[in-house]
Amino acid sequence: MAQLISLSRAARLVGVKRATLQKQIREGELHTFEGELDLSELLKVYPKTDLDGSGMVERADRIIENAFGKVLDTKDLPDAEVLATRVTLLSHELGTARARVNRFNKLVSRISDKLDSLEQAVGDPAVKAFRQWLESEIDEVQSAQGLHDEVLATDTFMRLLAAHVQLKPSGHDFFLNGSETLLHAGLRSGMQFRYGCTDGSCGRCRAKVISGEAKRVRAYPECLSEDELAAGYVTLCAHTAMTDVLLQVDEVIRPEEIESQVLPATLRRVDDLGQGMVGLVVNPVEPHRLQFLSGQSARIRIGDAAASYPIASCPCDETQIEFHINTADDNPLAARVAAGLDDVETLDLEGPRGDFVLNLESVHSLVFIAWDREFASIKSLIEQALALDVAEQIYIYWVTTDGSRPYLHNLCRAWQDAIDNVNYTRLEADPAVYGARAREVVGDTLAELAGQHYNVKVFDFYIGGPETVTEASRKYLVARGVPPAQVRTRHD
């Protein structure tokens, strides 16, 4: 009997991207059964699966976290009650699977006995040939059973440590580690939930548990009605997953679905990024959270100085918001940052703004193009794409027009070195790109990029830079056959 597993679990087991499996399904190399894969078929496509334990996923997670420069404040293991619940559930599944295997083995044995009797009674060569074929097929299945069992054991072990959370109606999914909340695990994985306070008082992050079991782990006052609780609703910020769960939840799809927020924040860190760029990391004051989509902007106010800047961090961690300030910008905030922020403790944030966001429904590989210092929003988009782990390939091109090295060149190199599907290229363009020859220079630069890809129509493009550059880039790519919906731009 087929052993079915989800695409996300299959990707973790064989060490590939979920998008890679999706591509193989589209091309007919793999087949799904109600959205899941047959483990035996998966192992035929990936016969050399390296299962030296299950640490490959955890190692990859650590590499990505180090590349991001972030540390997750989650416990390594679920608590005793969660572990006990998962062990009980898996024991029941194991018992059911063993009963099915026993019934299957008995059936095969009876078929073999019947063929023996039939062969002796009629002596038909066709019966003998069929019996030999059946025995060879059984031997082949048994020889492959070792790897099958090892993969299954690895998957079972991973299910003890991490719950699989699936979302309805979007079909998105993620893994929840340790005892972290459903909200935190979802945000960390790039999901775009509706939420507000994160302290259980507003109820905006409510979701309905369709199957599986959730456990309350935060002692917040209950904000849901008795009818909602009876219907199976929980607050994502206060609950963890006891088992694999299926949730019915509204996700944020479009930027206009997020209400504008004004909130106080503290200045956590000021970083010199080089080349006149300053990084600000700010923390919203509890219990406030700035909900935003990757690629969006927010208005920063320090005293009387204010200006809007793209958010440079991923929504995966809404408690630490990052901005990149070009001190050469002609606005009061840039001048205030250039003068120094030693005396600043608090500031105000207003946002989010903008529609330069990631298309979460796309199945294409991604191309990110940053011109000069327009990298902050691109960085946010890249980090969410990495957190979601759905793009088969990610290409990053950073174009400079003054001969200097990109100010976060080393970060892009770190992504490329640490993550298999990330490719980073530095390009240089003529400074005339800002003048009347913008379109020609953009064409020359993007021709170099396009020459690396045989078919630019199969990519989604995200481009940040001066308006003359982004518009020229859009026109060039559309003229090359890229559908307009697959070209998104942000200009300064």
Which percent range fits the helix content?
Answer: 25-40%
Helix tally equals: 13
Strand content bin: 15-25%
Give the mean pLDDT. 82
Number of strands: 21
Largest beta sheet: strand ordering: 14-13-16-11-12-15
Radius of gyration, taken over Cα atoms and rounded to an integer in Å: 27 Å
Major sheet: size, sense and barrel closure? 6 strands, antiparallel
- Derived structural class: alpha+beta
Which residues sit in consecutive blocks of at least 5 with pLDDT less than 50?
51-60, 66-74
Outline:
flat
Structure described in brief:
The chain is an alpha+beta fold and 492 residues long. 38% of the residues lie in helices and 24% in strands.
What does this structure look like?
With 492 residues, the protein is an alpha+beta fold. It has 13 helices and 21 strands. A 6-stranded antiparallel β-sheet has the order 14-13-16-11-12-15, covered by helices on one side. A hairpin with a 4-residue loop joins strand 4 (162-168) and strand 5. Helix 1 (7-14) crosses helix 2, helix 4 (55-68) runs antiparallel to helix 11 (409-418) and helix 12 (438-450) packs across helix 13 (467-479). The protein is flat and about 95 Å long. Mean pLDDT is 82; it is low at 51-60 and 66-74.
